[in-house]
C-alpha cells in the first residue's frame, strides 16, 4: 500500500484540494486498493474545519468528491507513516524538514516538482490570492504527474 500525504499551511485550501483531486485520479485508474491519500496542515488554525468555500466551489464545478475531508495538523508520526509527503510550496517543505529533524521520513518534496519544465515551483495560496481556478489547474496537473511517477516507481 502506497501512502500519499498532501501538506499546506492550514489544510483548508490547497492540500484538501490536492487530496480530493488525487483520490479522484486514483479511483479513475482503479488503484483505490493500492494508494491511500490524506492531507494535513503545518498550522493548527483550522483543525476540524471543512475545506474553504472556494475550494469546495471549484471541486464541485469539476465534479470532484471532497466528502469526509476536514482539516488536521500534521504530526511527526505522519512523516514516518507516509511514503510521499507532498508540500504545496517551499515554506511547507522547510517546515516539514524541521519537524522531521534527523528522523527517517518518507519522500518530502513539492507537488509541482513532478511537472516537467514547470515554470512555477510553488502552488500559490488561494486563501490570500482568491484565485482558486488557477490553483485547481496547477494542482490537477501536479497530481497527474505525481500519480504517473508513483505508478512507475512502485510498479502499480
TrEMBL record:
InterPro entries per UniProt: LMW_PTPase, Ptyr_pPase, Ptyr_pPase_sf, Tyr_phospatase_low_mol_wt
Pfam families (UniProt xref): LMWPc (PF01451)
Entry keyword annotation includes NADP: no
Catalyses which reaction(s): O-phospho-L-tyrosyl-[protein] + H2O = L-tyrosyl-[protein] + phosphate
UniProt-recorded Gene Ontology molecular function terms: protein tyrosine phosphatase activity
Enzyme Commission number(s): 3.1.3.48
Active-site feature positions: 8, 14, 125
Keyword Hydrolase: yes
Domain Phosphotyrosine protein phosphatase I: 2-149
Keywords recorded for this protein, A-Z: Hydrolase, Protein phosphatase
Protein family membership: Belongs to the low molecular weight phosphotyrosine protein phosphatase family.
PANTHER family: LOW MOLECULAR WEIGHT PHOSPHOTYROSINE PROTEIN PHOSPHATASE, LOW MOLECULAR WEIGHT PROTEIN TYROSINE PHOSPHATASE
Name of the featured protein: protein-tyrosine-phosphatase
Provenance organism: Parageobacillus galactosidasius
Amino acid at each position: 500500500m502506497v501512502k500519499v500525504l498532501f501538506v499546506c499551511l492550514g489544510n483548508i485550501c490547497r492540500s484538501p484540494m490536492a487530496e480530493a483531486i488525487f483520490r479522484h485520479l486514483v479511483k479513475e485508474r482503479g488503484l483505490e486498493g493500492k494508494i491511500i491519500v490524506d492531507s494535513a496542515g503545518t498550522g493548527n488554525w483550522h483543525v476540524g474545519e471543512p475545506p474553504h468555500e472556494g475550494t469546495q466551489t471549484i471541486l464541485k464545478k469539476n465534479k470532484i468528491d471532497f466528502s469526509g475531508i476536514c482539516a488536521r495538523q500534521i504530526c511527526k508520526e505522519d512523516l514516518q507513516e507516509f511514503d510521499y509527503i507532498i508540500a504545496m510550496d517551499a515554506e511547507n517543505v522547510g517546515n516539514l524538514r524541521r519537524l522531521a529533524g534527523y528522523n527517517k521520513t518518507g519522500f518530502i518534496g513539492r507537488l509541482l516538482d513532478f511537472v516537467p519544465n514547470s515554470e512555477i515551483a510553488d502552488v500559490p495560496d488561494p486563501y490570500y490570492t482568491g484565485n482558486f481556478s488557477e490553483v485547481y489547474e496547477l494542482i490537477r496537473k501536479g497530481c497527474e504527474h505525481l500519480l504517473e511517477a508513483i505508478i512507475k516507481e512502485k510498479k502499480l
